[in-house]
Fold:
Amino acid sequence: MSGILYVTGTPIGNLEDITLRQLRILEEVDFIAAEDTRVTRKLLTHFELKTPLVSYHDHSGATVAVQIADRIAAGESCAIVTDAGMPCISDPGEELVRICRERGIPVQAVPGPSAVVTALSVSGGSTAQFVFYGFLPVDKKPRAELLEQLRLEQRTAILYEAPHKLCRTIADLKSACGGARKLAFCRELTKVHEEVLRMSLEEADAYYAEHAPRGEFVLVLDGAVQEEEACTVQDALKLAQLYLSQGMSAAAAAKLAAKETGMTKHEIYRLLHQEE
Structure:
């Protein structure tokens, strides 16, 4: 009988955020697949757990994922964890989950904190709709393509960034989106030095030029504001004609159309008489 793969969240900083269920699963499984065994070992040691660890990270390759899936298929249970937060989000665990699903191996979530949603909740930006972009590509072409998407993106956009790359990312975002676009810089979430700063890209460019970025960042970028197309005189005329067809006088139709389009009442009235 197959075992189970438990996609298990861990604290993103403050160890008090671990749940009773997470602790139970981490203790009961046969082994834990960890992004960095050194980081996970510290977590287990803190809670006096001795579950065996196997390494599974970005450079492990498909062979390691298959080996882990083979062990689960043979009856062992496994918890997959990342260094912090929910695994499989911008994380190699995605491949393991896919393999297990394809082979009919049960996969269960043991949810915990997520830096994405945590940052969004305290950012001060709109939370109605959002999209997660992960890390910006390093290579020039895909980076430029993604920056263009962000320029047009009307939903709140969430990105990860390392401190040593932050200033370049700010400069690129400013160039693509304009200096007025606002975003929140969420740093060291739930940790002792947690900090959330909300400012424009123009302000951020100046701020981080003087304050060296430290710690891991989650960036919460406001969506682009859709620009309304300018109303033309012909648009105003059509609107006035519509009001005329509804029984309004020319003067009343021109006045109402002017109010709704920003055109002058006299110009619309003149055009109405030209159309007669």
Observations:
- The first strand starts at residue 5 and ends at 8.
- The radius of gyration is 27 Å.
- Residues 71 and 77 are 8 Å apart (CA to CA).
